[in-house]
Amino acid sequence: DPQAQPLNEEEMARLALGLRTRLQNDAGNVEGWLMLGRTGMVLGNAGTATGAYANAYRLDPKNRDAALGYAEALTRSSDPEDNRRGGELLRQLVRSDHTDIRVLSLYAFNAFEQQRFGEAVAAWEMMLKLLPAGDARRAVIERSIRLAQEK
């Protein structure tokens, strides 16, 4: 319902608990795992988000939402091995579709954080080609490119 109030943190936590409970009996439900992954991200619960997205991706590796969610959770991890795996998954996503703004954005910021500045600039430049002239994101991307080129 577009008119409904957004859930507060307590309601989100209850939603996550309900989803977890339901998924114990319906472990093959990709959409349920995706919803639990998104809920985990909103709540800042990295373990829940990563585990849920991993399950969704394992069940349906061709699902771009599952792959992108899993990659994002991995790149936000404090574990360098998770970051490496997340970066590799993002590279695969970019290779399969280099016109997806969400994928390019996450890929660029991940590359920047990993000090792969040339890759970050290339992804941001691709985004600039895809975004319309008046898009507000262009200014942020142009600043990011300048910052990466200074490194």
TrEMBL record:
Pfam families: TPR_CcmH_CycH
Gene3D superfamilies from the UniProt entry: Tetratricopeptide repeat domain
TPR repeat windows: 30-63
Keyword Calcium attached: no
Gene Ontology terms: cellular component: plasma membrane
Keywords, in A-Z order: Cytochrome c-type biogenesis, Repeat, TPR repeat
Residue ranges of every copy of the Cytochrome c-type biogenesis protein H TPR domain listed in the record: 2-137
GO BP annotations, alphabetical order: cytochrome complex assembly
Protein name: C-type cytochrome biogenesis protein
UniProt organism field: Salmonella enterica subsp. enterica serovar Kentucky
Upper taxonomic lineage: Bacteria, Pseudomonadati, Pseudomonadota, Gammaproteobacteria, Enterobacterales
